[in-house]
Amino acid sequence: MLALTMINLSWSQERTCNCSEAFSDMTVKLEANYIGLKHFYERGKRSEYEQRKTEFTKLSSNTDASQCTQVLGEFLSYFDDGHLFVFERPKYAETEIDAMRRRIQTGKLDVDQVEALLKLQSRMTGTGEGDKIIGRYSDATSEFAMVKDGDSYNGYILQSTNENVSSGELKVTLKWTGEAYRGVYYSYGHEVSFTKGQLYKEGTLLKLANSRWARIDSEFEREEAMFDFENGIDQPTIQKLDDDNVLFSIPSYNLDYQQFMSFLKKNEKTLLNARNLIFDIRGNTGGNAIYFPFFDLFSDRIMPGGQGHVLASADNLAYFERNVQFSAKIYKPVVKDIQEHMGEIVDGPAYLGRTVKRNKKSKVENVAILTDEGCMSAAESFILHAKGISSKVTTFGSPTFGMIDYTSVNASQLNSGNQHIYFGYPTSTFHKEIPENGYNKTGIVPDVPIARNVEDKVAYIMQHYKQDK
Fold it and tell me: What is the dihedral of CA 221, 225, 231, 235, to 10 degrees?
């Protein structure tokens, strides 16, 4: 018997999504394209999957459109694969947006009242696991206060540079479900969507499906300096901590490549002169492989190549055909194998070993990568590639999320009306020994674990290298 924690998102009567149809569309795409399901079948779990599918077929037929994304996401959680997901980008009529705007503005709170509540709750002792979210945040556009109201956590705007909103408006309301925060997010245009979030980076980063908020009431000044409150919370920052240590914080790899290259060029001298280069990638949930340009700071060996597997399907064929424009040598063989072996598992792209010549001006002797459970996808790929190209790399902290075994994501819109639900799935395995020899179950375990009760983990790394000096 299914017992799901559902978030009530009944904000509109004009939704045209039929959740049963969306679920059917998603499972058809899942079964045709997801190589991880093939692996489940190979391990004798076909009947287990079919039973779950039957249960959710019934559940989806009785699910309101505004709650459909939650149900589809819960179904996919069975695979424990972060690259298998759904998200929504609802399309609203002006009448719906006007109604939501009026409701939000009618429910505004006095900012002084929110501040007083925040001050009171921040001093509370013996708070529960979910209460860790209480605090003051910024997304580089607005400042928020996250306070508790019953079993909900509400984020109110304290001040903002966005002219569409005003102080006291509700921005997000969440509930702690035991493993994540789930709830309702209001865009700056007052459009509403389901969101799911988690705290990372020692509670200083709140990652939502729709936004990233950085805590601005940290007891460590350095923690706040790890975020760029002017250009965006996702943007990297660099701090020279002392004569030996440079801290390179990268909250996300979902960055504009040219802007990132410009940032590296601007900070080149600081990076080259670092003895100990500390990468803080806690809470970096992934993006693109834009990290290769700074490998010349510490490279000392050839990074091994690799090849995984792909499930031959029409959608995967279209995905790799699009990639041919980037490298015909790598992707044309995959396209040919898919065309000739539909429905079978075939070899994926073969990536050659990579040589990066070390910059002669670099003084880097040690490279530390600080990780936590918020490190996913491209962030995990960065760790493996960095360790592959250099013997100087040591990882610190806690295990990563574990979201690298299945990779190279393709996404398509489901038959979901104006709810606009999208289904994403990985097209390839990271290497040919997945899932037996992968990272999804354990995450990438750090070389030097740092206990969770160590508050200043950057200082811990600095002390580690000081002892080795």
Answer: -140
Which residue stretches of 10-91 are H helix? 19-33, 35-42, 46-61, 68-76
Instruction: Report yes or no: 23 and 11 within 8 Å, Cβ to Cβ.
Output: no
Do 110 and 81 belong to one domain? no
* Shared-domain flag, residues 112 and 99: yes
Extended strands (E) in 352-445: 366-371, 393-397, 406-413, 421-429
157 plus 295 within the same structural domain:
no
Range of the domain at 30: 19-89+411-428
DSSP 301-342: SPBP-EEEEEE--HHHHHHHHHHTTT-HHHHHHHHHHHHHST
Copy the structure tokens of residue 156.
């109110």
Asked if residues 405 and 446 have their Cβ atoms less than 8 Å apart, the reply is: no
pTM over 0.90: yes
- Considering the domain architecture, whether residues 114 and 47 belong to the same structural domain is answered as no
- Write out the E strands in 250-320: 276-280, 306-311
Amino acid at 187: S
Which of 187, 215, 243 terminates a domain? The answer is: 215
d(C-alpha 117, C-alpha 176), whole Å: 19
pLDDT tens for residues 170-179? 999 999 988 8
Q: What pLDDT digit, counting tens, does each position of 243-274 carry?
A: 999 999 999 999 999 999 999 999 999 999 99
Order of all β-strands in the sheet with 448-449 = 237-240, 245-249, 276-280, 366-371, 393-397, 448-449
Tokens at residue 37, please? 């399901």
